Amino acid sequence: xxxxxxxxxxxxxxxxxxxxxxxxxxxxxxxxxxxxxxxxxxxxxxxxxxxxxxxxxxxxxxxxxxxxxxxxxxxxxxxxxxxxxxxxxxxxxxxxxxxxxxxxxxxxxxxxxxxxxxxxxxx
Amino acid sequence: xxxxxxxxxxxxxxxxxxxxxxxxxxxxxxxxxxxxxxxxxxxxxxxxxxxxxxxxxxxxxxxxxxxxxxxxxxxxxxxxxxxxxxxxxxxxxxxxxxxxxxxxxxxxxxxxxxxxxxxxxxx
DNA sequence: CTGAAACTTAACCATAAAGTTAAGTTATCG
DNA sequence: CGATAACTTAACTTTATGGTTAAGTTTCAG
Lengths: 123, 123
Fold this sequence. Notes:
- Two copies of one chain form a homodimer.
- In chain A, strand 2 and strand 3 (about 70-75) form a beta hairpin.
- Chain A has a three-stranded antiparallel beta sheet.
- Chain A is mainly alpha-helical.
- Chain A is elongated, with a radius of gyration of 22 Å.
- In chain A, helix 1 (about 1-15) runs antiparallel to helix 4 and helix 1 (about 1-15) packs across helix 5 (about 80-90).
- Chain A has two domains: about 1-80, Winged helix-like DNA-binding domain superfamily/Winged helix DNA-binding domain (Arc Repressor Mutant, subunit A), CATH 1.10.10.10; about 80-110.
- Chain A has helices spanning about 1-15, 20-30, 35-40, 45-60, 80-90, 90-110, and strands at about 35, 65-70, 70-75.
- The interface of A and B includes residues 82 and 84 of A.
- Chain A binds a DNA duplex through helix 4.
């Protein structure tokens, strides 16, 4: 049963690994529903190429498509992202740990400023 | 400049889209450091195959490898996941919204139970 | 009923991914 | 120095990705 979830995660992460597809999703984040041609319009690539990306997205469950007449409405379905977030959340402690350490260091310096280390510096 | 981040996200999501690689990372989540052969041991595939996965992970910056004598220590570096989390976080409202709506619905029913709708139901 | 708009399918190509086996490298041990 | 352990590289195969152009479908407008 955990195998199915694995495959879903595979599809989700894989779908998200392409910048065109992330841009498509980002577009749908602000628009409720867009047709295939509206989605395709900003991209330099051909319509069929965009279609393939939409296929990947809908196979991953990240969009739904409904045909009305000759136009197809695409809308976002973020649900599969929740599982991806959960997977990543397991590792969150590693960077919060790091940030905590940084914060501690900064607090320490604020309390007891070391000489010759003030001013501007990029990290 | 945002292009570089895009490529990093590509690599991160792509690296995470394979179950073997996620298993390798999960292993390193609990172990601080493991050698290549220790990491490879649980898998049915050949050593070179695991090597390639490790190459992908380190190219994505998700692990670091340090050679000591003839053994190579791999350790987790979760930092790139933070960016992936941030990207996903933009969409978090979509499922929390959904959960909020569900919760509201349940509260409403608890207050004012509709007749003929009790019991078990799918979806 | 013709034609254009909005997709969809098909056929093809180049490159990358994921695996294999076989043949190197380096280290460490006896 | 020779053998073995721990990787690494090379060469190859198969399948998947991401793109193309060309040729269908439907559906709506005139």
